[in-house]
Protein 1
Amino acid sequence: MESMVRHLHEAIKEVRITPAEWMEAITFLTRTGQISDNKRQEFILLSDVLGVSMLVDTLAHDTTSGATANTVLGPFHVSDAPHYANGADIRLKQTGEAMWVAGGVRDTEGRPVAGANLDVWQADDSGFYDVQRPNDLPEWNLRGQFTTDGNGHYDFITSKPLHYPIPSDGPVGDLLNALDRPFIRPAHLHFIVTADGYAPVITHYFDDRCPYLQYDPVLGVKSSLLTRFEPNVEHSGSAKSDSVKWTARCDFVLARGGDDPSA
Amino acid sequence: MESMVRHLHEAIKEVRITPAEWMEAITFLTRTGQISDNKRQEFILLSDVLGVSMLVDTLAHDTTSGATANTVLGPFHVSDAPHYANGADIRLKQTGEAMWVAGGVRDTEGRPVAGANLDVWQADDSGFYDVQRPNDLPEWNLRGQFTTDGNGHYDFITSKPLHYPIPSDGPVGDLLNALDRPFIRPAHLHFIVTADGYAPVITHYFDDRCPYLQYDPVLGVKSSLLTRFEPNVEHSGSAKSDSVKWTARCDFVLARGGDDPSA
């Protein structure tokens, strides 16, 4: 609190906040709390767009361990997604273009990690998560949990995700508008990768050709988290299908240590 | 925003805020917004207890003008209080000990300001404003507006105010408890003094013998805003009464300039 209050006072003195600006800030913060409920957390969104979430995440993780980099959890994760066998199709509504996602989980010495859990979720080809369109999209659409095999491999079929805007109808939207800041998150897949004895990784893989990569409003992009959504590539695996138009490889490295990144 | 975000990041890095602490802060800010409504503004209270309100006020006012110092408006002001003639009794419920409040309004050259408006409000002898106890206390209890006479004088009868706790049943109360900070505001009278051609003064006068003077949770006390609540002093004025046990002198100086301190 001492540090927070000191820096808050320094900022106010630096720009000589006026009483009218102060009142605007009070109103903004109040609206940010009042629009939040158990399905929407506008203060987390504010933290995201101010780069606070990424900063806290960076401070919490040892970036020298060799593990896959973390990025923001985001507001759309839902716990206890269905467990599927590798190769399963997580499209509960068949829209967009099918994409095969496959990869391996290894430790920092390059050894496969068998039995690792991958919790995956993403937006659809229109940029919507199931929870945003409960009337149109089946519950658990484009969500699932997978377990790596004895070689540390996993794979599944999904829909190629689209970039999408963060919620802009609240105070955070007003703030970004006032600052002329963009709203569009580049296309990505979410992953939480866990395995006994390893530090969890909460991250995304981004479409490295997405035109919005450089303007992520929540500042979540890291160069190590880019992957190519390859068109029409022959693939071998448990989910071959002529109708699968894209392939994305998403590999992960876990570091030893059982620490919970949320603690 | 650039300054605010830079200082916010500096504070987070300085103390290495953990994800759990970050989540605690998100929850705290959300609750602070959600408990606020048109009768309670918890973010203003938060600003008050962090010294932000006083800092913004200090930056907004020329403290070298010779005018009476400002202090926090507080959450209990109600606009359009009844207008009374000088000497009137603003106790709509007869509780506590009567106090005669009198003084003059002058300009920075010492000349009386006739026709100045004084908007006054205060807590009662139990520490409550009318708006806090709408079932027990009449509306406009211990509130009123007065106009200075040709000599710049005003006076009225009121109830000697008691110190009182700031609201402690919300997130700000939890914060002060966690920091072992006191809750009690020292006894005071509120004034807004306005006159055409002068900068308004929003201030308090504090009981200079109140034991809580040094621990004002909103940091509103200034040495120039202390006055003595004198017992049993003979007074001359329009409101003589043997039943008036106390006298408080509250003088004001206005500086030229029509600027609105709230702008």
Note: Helices of chain B lie at 2-15, 19-34, 42-49, 52-60, 171-178.
Protein 2
Amino acid sequence: MKYELYYWPTIQGRGEYVRLALEEAGSSYRDIARESGRGRGVPALLSMMRTRRVARPPFAPPYLKAGRLIIGQTANILAFLGPRHGLAPREEGGRLWVHQLQLTLSDFVGEIHDTHHPISPDLYYREQEKEALRRTAEILKRRAPKYLGYFEDVMARNGRHARYLVGARLSYVDLSMFQVVAGLGFAFPRAAAKWTRRYKRLYALHAQVQERPRIAAYLASPRRIAFNNDGVFRQYPELDLAGG
Amino acid sequence: MKYELYYWPTIQGRGEYVRLALEEAGSSYRDIARESGRGRGVPALLSMMRTRRVARPPFAPPYLKAGRLIIGQTANILAFLGPRHGLAPREEGGRLWVHQLQLTLSDFVGEIHDTHHPISPDLYYREQEKEALRRTAEILKRRAPKYLGYFEDVMARNGRHARYLVGARLSYVDLSMFQVVAGLGFAFPRAAAKWTRRYKRLYALHAQVQERPRIAAYLASPRRIAFNNDGVFRQYPELDLAGG
């Protein structure tokens, strides 16, 4: 099936978790808002959320068009793609567990996003910088170690398969974890330098995913948007310093 | 199957979305942390997240024990229960759509929670009251209307079935929407008085769910914990006033 991904064209954001899964699957997909012309670009992205012709409009990007289905919410898209492309276990218990980990990672990403937007996504960073400093200190000191420690422990419990989060094969949540580790390194290089030594399994997973042939090819291609300060992970040195 | 729900015993919180689904399904379940004795209570709740005997420990409550499965993350639990108990469509497109709406509602609940905890869940409200006032003003003026308007529109698009969010039958996301509408009325009575007139379909859904026999019986029973200021929805009059 040829997929159509709809996401903001200039950031990795939440769309990146979907892009990584599509790339690792070797899927044929179009990144609609990054193309130009009729039925493409940001107007196409917005139109699908507003038109009366769509019975089930998504609340926000990313969303994926797969045949007649329009699927929204990052973790929901991954739950759809996973079993179709060998990126999730086939049996129910395994599928639920991968999805549960993905939702926990989504919660972490939401908290990371709010480091620079603790008051509202509708205000600029500079309008909430004071609150952002306070929130980021809490995230870096308490919340991030809680999440990272949890995922490190999940890997350890995976026993002899401890190279992956779940079972003996790569799943979509490994790809998402790669992205989070990469993002933390971009946004909080000072804090991340400590984490590299502390969460060895997660950082080994990051290194391993990065070297998979399809992911390596993707990262080197123009399809990979660079980290920048419009996405979820943003580089404000004053926030990194707030971690103490 | 006899289910075991694990959630904090003194609040509705995120466990309430699971409780409502189990009650409407007429399921036999035990609310483990509200019982006392060996293998029950809060110690049992915490133990399952920490013991080495569990291969796949949840990050946080609520979680559901169903036979040998331990399922965490509210929306994941509902996605598991829904098709088993007639609370979600059977075909894939419908199941994905209900889950997508549930995840969007989870995002909204996360933002509501952060009205009183914009800096950290690890600090008391009084330690972040100033930031809470500012965040709540944004939520009440912009974010809540955006979410509520979206769900009202989803109901309208459901056409002649506009009594429900999805299709011609009640699904778990209708139960969750009931809970959110009830919670907003508790936390923000002033703001909610306006919303009652504006989001007529959502408030009609709330009234309708409340009168379903099993839900009505549940709400009147001691199994329903009352709203209180330790949960997600909290009554701080100064925050309600922040909505202007």
Note: The first strand of chain B starts at residue 3 and ends at 6.
